[in-house]
Amino acid sequence: MTNLVSVNRKDLVDVAFFVIDVIMRKNHDYGDAWQRQGINGCMARLADKLFRIETLANGNEILVQGEKLEDTLVDAIGYAMLGLLYLDGMQK
């Protein structure tokens, strides 16, 4: 059995703020590209990240060197957050 990681509010808030910082910087660099195809585009990017997580987590051979599982997880969380914002904006 693997060791369990303790989860507490402070650590979750720290991760959330880190993800938010990454989202803001990437959104600046990419210029809101995630919204150009609506929620479907956002979800397609999220799906790509989930497939990438699977590849990296299973130790499959990768050709793009230097990509970390942690970075891909942050991107997936970011796209999920952006998807929620998009849906919220569509309901207003």
Describe the structure in brief.
The chain is mainly alpha-helical and 92 residues long.
Structural descriptors:
single chain; 92 residues; mainly alpha; 3 helices; 70% helix; 0% strand; globular
Average predicted confidence as pLDDT: 90
Percentage of β-strand residues: under 5%
The rounded distance between the terminal residues' Cα atoms is 46 Å
Structural class: mainly alpha
Strand elements, count: 0
Main pleated sheet: none
Rg is: 15 Å
Gross geometry: globular
Describe the structure.
- The model has no long low-confidence stretch (mean pLDDT 90).
- The chain is built from 3 helices and no strands.
- It has helices spanning 9-30, 38-57, 69-90.
- The chain is an all-alpha fold.
Topology:
Elements: H1 9-30, H2 38-57, H3 69-90
Helix pairs in contact: 1-3, 2-3
